[in-house]
Design brief:
By secondary structure, the chain is an alpha/beta fold. The chain folds into two domains: 130 residues, Glycogen Phosphorylase B (Rossmann fold); 162 residues, Rossmann fold. The chain has twelve helices and eleven strands. The strands form two sheets. The protein has a six-stranded parallel β-sheet. Strands 3-2-1-4-5 form a five-stranded parallel β-sheet, sandwiched between helices. Helix 3 links the parallel strand 2 and strand 3. Helix 8 packs across helix 9. The protein starts with 5 loop residues before the first strand and ends in a 9-residue tail after the last helix.
Amino acid sequence: MQKPLKILVVRFSSIGDIVLTSPIVRCLKQQLSAEVHFITKNLYKTIVNNNPHIDKVYSINSSTNEVLNGLKNEKYDYLIDLHNNIRSFQLRTVADNYLSYNKQNFKKFLLVKFGIDMLNNKHTVDRYYDTVSSLGIKPDGVGLDFFLDEKDIVDIGIYNSEYISFAIGGTHFTKILPIGKIIEICNHQDKQVILVGGKEDFDRGERIAAQCDNVINTCGDFTLNQAAYIVKNSNFLITHDTGMMHIAAAFKMKIISVFGGTHPQLGFTPYLPNPNNKIIQIENLNCRPCHRYGKSKCPKNHFKCMKDIDVSLFRK
């Protein structure tokens, strides 16, 4: 009897990108009956620790040298590099075969700099699938996975029986609505709004909650997985272009997402979306997208992509 393939999947960061690898991990396990290992940064290992399709998780603080000897001893058949940077390329020697994700950076450059779209509206997950197509892996149509366990359960009985979650964070300024806009959106809702985010979002959450009638700020109070539990049990999620958007997509729930300096054409919309989803953006603004990942300030100093958002579009 032939032994199963042993495969190491690499994605070091960030939250959303790691969640987007979950269909690949699942298909490697289910379609090849492979032994699947995963390597990421310590900061993000809780995203994959509960995944039943992953047999072993490796993690690093900053350098692959921290785990290199251990990885070499695993004797992998394949290294599937879904990160594709210098750090991940350094791991190519731990496996007999190396498959690498094509980021299509030149096509993204053309879209950002010249508005030339050659990406063909192809989602990042589908480009991940392209990476493993030579192994016979085919999309299974199931979507994303995100797994919680008992320690991720929090007491939501302190909130109203029906509530809306709002992920107010974002990795860059141009991904985040101005506070005034978030306050308007919250005050347009007919249900309690629970703000979710990290510690870096706490002060902004406090300013928002102070000017709204029925808003609770939980930013920084919970782990990522606990915040995901709050989101999962809400009526729907309002979110920027964030990792929580992709976690909510894994829950198959309704998502209202707003895109500012980034753009859905870059391939990071909710994957296999709920039919009730909305994507809100300023159409035909010729300075969008200003960057693939967002920027620390508006390059044009007007920030129309967020300031001109119509808050009435966020109503239920």
